[in-house]
Amino acid sequence: MDLIYVVVGIAVLLVLTGAFFYFRRLDRPGPAPTAEDVAVETRRAPVGINGRLGKSRTALGGALRGVFGRSALDTQFWEAMEEALMGADVGVAASAGVVERVRRAKPETAASARKLLEEELKAVFAHTERRLSLDGNPAVMLIVGVNGAGKTTSIAKLAGRLIVEGRKPLLAAADTFRAAADSQLRVWAEQVGVPVVAGKEGSDPAAVAFDGLSAAKARGRDVVIVDTAGRLHSKQNLMAELAKIRRVLERDGGTVGESLLVLDATAGQNGIAQVREFANAIGLTGIVLTKLDGTARGGIVVAVEQELGIPVKFVGVGEGVDDLMPFDPDAFVTELLADA
Ligand code: GDP
């Protein structure tokens, strides 16, 4: 009899001990979240372009409303349409081309002319690959652009996006010319939770870029985003330096999958000249068009693609870290013409 009490006692003791350890394990916190986990958790869901084009939408919409309000589809009608597009910085050649194609389709009413205009603008952007090319381990992205275009901000925004997509970016601060460029980049990097490799002010930018690449390999980071100078003593120096950075990154069979130009949409037609210069110096795989929220000249996107054939891959629509979105041409054109 006594033996039964002892056995039951031991069994109860074992169950209680097991339960104690089981519940204690549940209570114990998991590993501390990393900066990246926090960044991913706090990142907002990406927002669309709807309502973000502000002045461009009102300006072009207003001008086109005047056009579509005309009673006859006569010469003045087509001229006014072309002027409205040029006013939004669509560019002379691109505006003339688009209007000519709409006109040739012989619409009979203003409403069908509007519909055709929307289709023709969308057609400018068709069949272009806009996804980032992130092959290579690590994949390498070279970011260029003049000072003030929004390069630092866009790099942070891009890094933030990549983290949300499960990538592990690392930033190389190869703008060693501008005082405190790396500290500006660091502030952003901390906000999005990415490591930065920097050199001393005045050090060789190509060496910093290469160190970034080596550090990424050593630390298992799968994308290196290289920030570069936007201004040097002369334009030739700048272009030569960018070409050198590219060569160094491509040493030992490496590839620069993306060389993106950060372009300020408010630069207007002047921006087209910038694109040409950078494209000639290092070759461009795409454009990040910033400040689309603050300009009435959003039509520059059409001019860039139609005249230069370089895809706009991302657009910046604000100063916050989430205000960068992949360029969606259909949504963009619809929004641009929403008030027309
Ligand atoms: P950088 O000199 O090219 O590195 O330019 P920064 O990244 O420092 O940006 C210059 C200014 O433009 C800053 O005040 C940014 O907040 C602002 N900026 C950058 N991108 C955008 C954008 O898409 N929209 C708006 N409204 N401001 C932007």
Radius of gyration: 27 Å
The portion of residues assigned to helices is 40-55%
Task: Encode the helix/strand succession as letters.
Answer: HHHHHHEHEHEHEHEHEHEEH
Q: Assign the structural class, choosing from mainly alpha, mainly beta, alpha/beta, alpha+beta, or little secondary structure.
A: alpha/beta
CATH fold category name of the largest domain: Rossmann fold
The N- and C-terminal alpha carbons lie at a distance of 95 Å
| Biggest sheet: strand arrangement | 3-2-4-1-5-6-7-8
CATH architecture of the largest domain: 3-Layer(aba) Sandwich
CATH superfamily of the largest domain: P-loop containing nucleotide triphosphate hydrolases
Strand content: 5-15%
The overall pLDDT average reads 87
Low-confidence runs of at least 5 consecutive residues:
none
Largest sheet: 8 strands, mixed
User: What small ligands are held by the chains?
Assistant: guanosine-5'-diphosphate
Describe this structure in words.
The protein is α/β, with parallel strands linked by helices and 340 residues long. The chain has two domains: 54-124, Four Helix Bundle (Hemerythrin (Met), subunit A) (Up-down Bundle); 139-328, Rossmann fold (3-Layer(aba) Sandwich), CATH 3.40.50. It is 52% helix and 12% strand. It is built from 13 helices and eight strands. It has helices at 2-27, 35-42, 54-68, 75-87, 92-104, 110-124, 151-164, 181-192, 205-219, 235-249, 270-282, 300-308, 329-336, and strands at 139-144, 169-174, 196-198, 223-228, 258-264, 286-290, 312-316, 324-326. The chain has an eight-stranded mixed beta sheet with strand order 3-2-4-1-5-6-7-8, with helices on both faces. Strand 6, helix 12 (300-308) and strand 7 (312-316) form a beta-alpha-beta unit. Helix 3 (54-68) runs antiparallel to helix 4, helix 7 packs parallel to helix 8 and helix 11 packs across helix 12 (300-308). The radius of gyration is 27 Å and the shape is flat. The mean pLDDT is 87. Bound molecules: guanosine-5'-diphosphate. Residues 145, 147-153, 230, 290-291, 293-294, 316-319, 323 line the site of guanosine-5'-diphosphate (GDP).
